[in-house]
């Protein structure tokens, strides 16, 4: 089977770091680039974190581009205090990784993405796991890419469960609901939202397996993710673990059998009361060929096994 190409669009906090590890580890995809977003952290810090994590994993040939720094509706971004609580001030659990030896690319992130769609077409997978600001900007600049790209699988939103920022809104969507609305109305998508990511949990039992490898990456990832698990003990004590939000989206992008989906024409509400809600678009409910596949059930055991197999193999080597 020919390897698919993958681009990640990340606001690199802790689960984004695990998404990088999954993408680097999976032999069926070739990670060809990372685009930086804001969200868990400021965009500059997220880019540095992506470079550090790639270096830790020996993946020093993956280019990292800095994307847009704030939402399409504002002129700046203020990091939410809860983001520091969950991901640490530095976004990677206060773990002090060495400064990256190489810089981010100097080119424009949106242009890089559009160019890769033109080059790889149906063989390209995009996985956004932060706000959809970069993808929205790319669609506005080159609308035809929605028909040319092979697969967009995003982490964001909540359809069958409440949100995590407000009762209706999940954080990635809520950061830029207007951009998300454009994406949800125009692009073919698979939505991996809180509906399924709150069921794919990691505990200290699994991070101990990484630590026991005795390698630099095994120890660092155990420290980083233990910080996340500890934060979840405070913010979500009912879960008994931390949610594998972003790495689950990468898993589903590669293997759609990890979820069951329903097909819907969707939009994102931008009124004050229900800001950032992902739901069926009343204007397109009966239109044929719905553009969004919403993940509503997860093969938790199958995914967790793949996640641990991939990460253990990768961390063993680095
Ligand atoms: Ca993220």
From TrEMBL:
Q: Mind listing the GO biological process terms from this record?
A: purine nucleoside catabolic process
**Listed GO MF terms:** purine nucleosidase activity
One matching Pfam family: IU_nuc_hydro
- Domain of life of the organism encoding this protein: Bacteria
Q: Which UniProt keywords apply?
A: Glycosidase, Hydrolase
Inosine/uridine-preferring nucleoside hydrolase domain residues: 6-304
UniProt cross-references to Gene3D superfamilies, sorted A to Z: Ribonucleoside hydrolase-like
Q: Name one GO cellular component term.
A: cytosol
Instruction: Fetch the CDD domains from UniProt.
Output: nuc_hydro_CaPnhB
State what protein this is by name: Pyrimidine-specific ribonucleoside hydrolase RihB
């Amino acid at each position: 089977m020919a390897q698919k190409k993958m681009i990640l669009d990340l606001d690199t906090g802790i689960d984004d770091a695990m998404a990088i590890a999954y993408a680097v580890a999976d032999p069926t995809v070739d990670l060809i680039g990372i685009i930086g977003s804001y969200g868990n952290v400021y965009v500059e810090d997220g880019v540095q974190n992506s470079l550090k994590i790639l270096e830790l994993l020996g993946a020093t040939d993956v280019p990292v581009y800095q994307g847009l720094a704030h939402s399409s509706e504002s002129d700046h971004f203020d990091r939410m205090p809860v983001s520091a609580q969950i991901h640490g001030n530095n976004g990677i659990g206060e773990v002090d990784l060495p400064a990256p030896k190489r810089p981010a690319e100097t080119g424009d992130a949106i242009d890089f993405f559009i160019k890769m769609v033109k080059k790889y077409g149906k063989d390209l997978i995009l996985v956004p796991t932060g706000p959809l600001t970069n993808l929205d900007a790319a669609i506005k600049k080159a609308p035809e890419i929605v028909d040319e790209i092979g697969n967009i699988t995003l982490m964001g939103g909540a359809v069958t469960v409440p949100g995590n920022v407000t009762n209706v809104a999940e954080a990635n969507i809520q950061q830029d609901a207007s951009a998300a609305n454009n994406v949800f109305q125009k692009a073919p998508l698979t939505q991996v939202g809180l509906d399924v990511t709150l069921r794919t949990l990691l505990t200290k039992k699994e991070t101990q397996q990484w630590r026991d490898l005795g390698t630099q990456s095994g120890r660092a990832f155990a420290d980083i993710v233990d910080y996340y698990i500890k934060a979840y003990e405070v913010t979500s004590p009912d879960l008994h673990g931390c949610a594998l939000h972003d790495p689950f989206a990468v898993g589903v992008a590669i293997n759609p059998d990890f979820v069951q989906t329903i097909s819907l024409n969707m939009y994102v509400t931008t009124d004050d009361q229900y800001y950032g809600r992902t739901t069926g678009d009343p204007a397109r409910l009966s239109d044929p060929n719905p553009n969004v596949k919403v993940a509503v059930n997860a093969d938790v055991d199958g995914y967790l096994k793949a996640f641990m197999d991939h990460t253990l193999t990768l961390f063993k080597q680095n």
